Amino acid sequence: MAEEKKKLDLVRRAMPKQPPEIRRHNFDEVALGYAAETAVEEARRCIQCKKPGCVANCPVEIDIPGFLGRVAQGDFAGGCRILKDKNCLPAICGRVCPQEEQCEKTCVLGRKKAAVAIGRVERFLADWEAAQGDPERPPMAPPTGRKVAIIGGGPAGLTAAGDLAKAGHAVTIFEALHRMGGVLVYGIPEFRLPKAIVRREVRYLETLGVRLVTDFVVGKTRTLDQLLEEFDAVFVGSGAGLPWFMNIPGENLNGVYSANEYLTRLNLMKGFLFPEYHTPVKRHRRVAVIGGGNVAMDCARSALRLGAEARIVYRRSRTELPARLEEIENAEEEGVVFEFLTLPVRYLGDENGWIRGIECIRMELGEPDASGRRKPVPIEGSNTVFEVDAAVCAIGNSPNPLIAATTPGLEIGKHGNIVADEATGRTSKACVWAGGDVVTGAATVILAMGAGRKAARSMHEHLTGLDQRAGR
Questions:
Q1: Which of 23, 174, 199, 278 has the least CB density, counted as fewest CB within 10 Å?
Q2: What three-state secondary structure class fits 169?
Q3: What is the pTM of this model?
Q4: In sequence order, which ranges of 379-426 are alpha helices (DSSP H)?
Q5: How far is CA 301 from CA 24, 211, 237, 338, 465, in A?
Q6: What's the CA gap between 11 and 31, in Å, rounded?
Q7: Opening angle at CA 233, ends 232 and 237, nearest 5
Q8: Is 352 buried (19+), middle (13-18) or exposed (0-12) by CB count in 10 A?
Q9: 396 φ/ψ sector (left φ>0, alpha ψ -120 to 50, else beta)
Q10: For 221, what's the count of Cα atoms within 13 Å in the CB-facing half-sphere?
Q11: CA distance 173 to 235
């Protein structure tokens, strides 16, 4: 046993990054990726468990020891085949998936605080494949003659589309925006996920035969029921694009944004490249971002890059921040100011209707609430005012109500989400499945992908059963 322990490599390879003093002034990708030698060294740290917890904790069921083993041998092409057998978006997952809460959380080496950097090796493989030219096409089932409509070109929809296309079905994705990708293109900044990488992953789906239709708003352009007249099955993966606000005085002032609007202008509409792109973004001096998740970090770090003093206002302490640790650390390194145990109570405006300040009350932590985190309690008489000329509300989102309002027979939950079976994605409406944020509310990219995969499996079983029942 002692000899076995000596063989363990407990040195987790660091990810090279742009220095904070440089990256805070540009929108280039912060993390620079592993070199091939580093990826091999990191992959060799995997001890190839007989019962790998990493696989069990991966929402898309990747054979993680399998692809790590290939990388350890220098067989990058073989590693790509194993990886892409389950994941059609590896370059995206390698960048934005919270591996520390999924696969890496159950890595045996994690007990020694040295979990294998699975996501970083995944990113390396995806980028290596892209550098070789056109990606290898996976085995494809013969055409089934069945047609599937996917509503929403985000992570859930893209994953379901890839799996269904490989199963032989004719797949069409209908996307409301002018670019495929959903939250990947409108919500995640360039410095975390370059949009060229999203385009690359989407092009891969096209090589599988997936048809892409943009500027198509289901519920307006055509209803879901009208799509069912043409398609044998429909998957709804339209995300959660309806922003939440705090309902405090002053929210109608100019300069008060939802995170969706703020990030969409910068990311999807390339506002940070004005005038090269025609979407102007006002250059604010002091920006307050309300919230503590990854979206809040994205907003604050974006504001910083546009020249503002960026401040995160969060009602709990640093310990309770829900954002990924690496995103919190990146924000701190870059100079984002954190106001912990602080809750906004109203926005203050000037005579022209523009925000000029945000009044907050200080909090203290009480007993744990339903989430398991200690509940913030206001401290009487502790009000303070921060001078700002913009505030971004990043406290969450709900699904857009359009599809629910135009689809009779589709069961909707109390928060506007589509009710779907967790294991299969089936909804109350025949031949309709759903998954991702439209079902769960705003969550992670990888959980949406996992939902897309489960639904695709159920849809394939249903479509295959149609043929059997028809005696084909």
A1: 278
A2: coil
A3: 0.93
A4: 402-405
A5: 8, 35, 28, 12, 50
A6: 19
A7: 155
A8: exposed
A9: left
A10: 12
A11: 9
Q: What is the DSSP letter of 282?
A: -
Backbone φ and ψ for 354, nearest 5 degrees, come out as -100, 145
| Greatest distance between any 2 Cα atoms in the chain | 75
Chain segment 293-351, per-residue pLDDT in tens: 999 999 999 999 999 999 999 999 999 999 999 999 999 999 999 999 999 999 999 99
How far apart are the C-alpha atoms of 100 and 222, rounded to whole Å?
41
- Determine the pLDDT at residue 370: 83
391 in Cβ contact with 255 (< 8 Å): yes
Closest to 14 in 3D by CA, of 35, 3, 22, 99: 35
Looking at the DSSP assignment, which residues form a beta bridge with residue 148?
A: 171, 233
Q: What is the C-alpha to C-alpha distance for residues 432 and 310, in angstroms, rounded to an integer?
A: 43
Q: What is the DSSP string of 310-353?
A: EEEE-SS-GGG--S-HHHHHHHHHHT-EEE-SEEEEEEEE-TTS
Instruction: State how far the Cα of 231 lies from the Cα of 225, in Å rounded to an integer.
Output: 10
Q: Give me the helices (H) in 87-177, please.
A: 90-96, 118-131, 155-166
With a CB cutoff of 8 Å and minimum separation 6, the contacts of 162 are: 88, 205, 208, 210
Cα 300-260-234 angle, rounded to 5 deg: 140
Run means of pLDDT, 10 residues per run, the chain, 472 residues: 61 96 96 97 95 93 96 97 93 94 93 94 96 90 97 97 97 96 95 95 95 97 97 97 95 96 92 84 94 97 97 96 95 98 97 97 91 89 97 95 95 94 97 96 92 97 77 51
State how far the Cα of 24 lies from the Cα of 303, in Å rounded to an integer: 10
What are phi and psi for residue 214, nearest 5 degrees? -105, 175
List, in sequence order, every residue forming a beta bridge with 216; answer none if it has no partner: none
Query: Rounded to the nearest 5°, which phi and psi values hold at 17?
Result: -140, 160
In this predicted structure, what is the pLDDT of residue 467?
58
Question: CA–CA separation, 448 vs 444, rounded Å?
Answer: 6
User: Whose structure tokens read 């939440």?
Assistant: 244
Rounded distance between C-alpha atoms, residue 400 and residue 403, angstroms: 7
* Burial class of residue 6 in the structure, from the number of CB atoms within 10 Å of its CB (0-12 exposed, 13-18 middle, 19+ buried): exposed
**111: closest CA among 10, 26, 251, 262?**
10
Strands in 256-258's sheet, in edge-to-edge order, are: 256-258, 390-393, 286-290, 309-313, 337-339
